[in-house]
Amino acid sequence: MIDESKLADLIRAIEAKIRQELRLRCEAYTPDFRMPEVFNVLTALLARQATLAIEMASAPQLWNGHSAPLFLRAMTDVHITLSWVLLDAKARARQYIDHGLGQAVLELEHRKKRLESADESTKEDLEQMILASEAWIDAQRWNFLVEVNVGAWSGKSAREMAEEAGILDFYNYVYAPFSQCAHSTWYHVGRYNSGPSESPLTGQLWMPRIIDSPCDVWDLYLAAKYLDKSFDTFDEKALGRPPSSGIQGWINKEIEARFRAGDEKRDASGNDESQSGPRPPPRPPSTDG
Question: Which of the four, 13, 34, 250, 273, has the lowest number of CB atoms within 10 Å?
């Protein structure tokens, strides 16, 4: 039985550690005011990655095969985006912002169209949402000057971005498998939400189920590992210094010290991406009768 107070203390310590590491990197990165979008995008992506790791660490009930891949897939997306932007930060940071503003304008136009037929009970709320959206867009660029691009923001697939950034193994072993859960493909649903009927009379049918996927600290280690990757990439490409992030190792030591889990120590560190992805798939139920 896990001591709930110890677990809560660990979660608070993890959040404080991540926030500290994020703050130190952002403070060390000097913005170039001739192209502020580079600073804005790179530090925002780091903050996004840190946020996902903190939220994942804060919810142990999500450390399972049903939910953890949703967070981990988002983290892999951030890491690929960050790695690709850093190859040509000036051009790609502006490209990233322009696409995001275009998506905001597109949503804004949809809401304005909806406003035309809205009833009185929802009209005021819609008007407030429209005003807030316009203010956010106009703070960066007048909304009527924003171009809308409905394609991929980079003009490339995630695989192409990963390949250009030299992290294709990360895409193959991490991004692609976790995408199956995010998109609810048969690869995931057929393992976690369906299984062969146990009756010989209906052997060809697969029955709906919700498998028992117990809490596994491995998912926390993976979140920390992906955060380390992004921090290390920022260290090398933006700060021009050797990679120095060690959050995954720090969490390992904290768990061992707080829970005396030395015999159960698990390590997600290392450069072999084949060891950085999802856990082995659940076994199907027996069909032996």
Answer: 34
List of long-range contacts for 152-156, beta carbons under 8 Å, 24+ apart: 153/95, 153/96, 153/99, 153/100, 154/81, 154/84, 154/92, 154/95, 154/96, 156/84
The answer to whether residue 92 is domain-embedded is no
Counting residues of the chain whose pLDDT is more than 90, the rounded percentage is 76
Answering whether pTM is above 0.85, one says yes
Q: What's 185-241 look like in SS3?
A: CHHHHHHHCEEECCCHHHCCCEEECCCCCCCCCHHHHHHHHHHHHHHHHHHHHCCCC
Q: Which residues have C-beta within 8 Å of that of residue 277, sequence separation ≥ 6? A: 173, 174, 177, 178
235 touches 21 (CB < 8 A): no
- From residue 144, alpha-carbon distances to 14, 147, 232 in Å are 43, 8, 39
In a domain, 79, yes or no: yes
Residue 269 — pLDDT band, cuts 50, 70, 90?
low
Q: What is the dihedral of CA 105, 109, 110, 111, to 10 degrees?
A: 100
Q: Is residue 204 part of a domain?
A: no
Copy the structure tokens of residue 207.
């029955």
Is residue 91 within 8 A of residue 106, CB to CB? The reply is: no
Domain extent for 252:
4-87+165-199+213-275
CB 152 within 8 A of CB 145: no
Specify if 207 maps to a domain: no
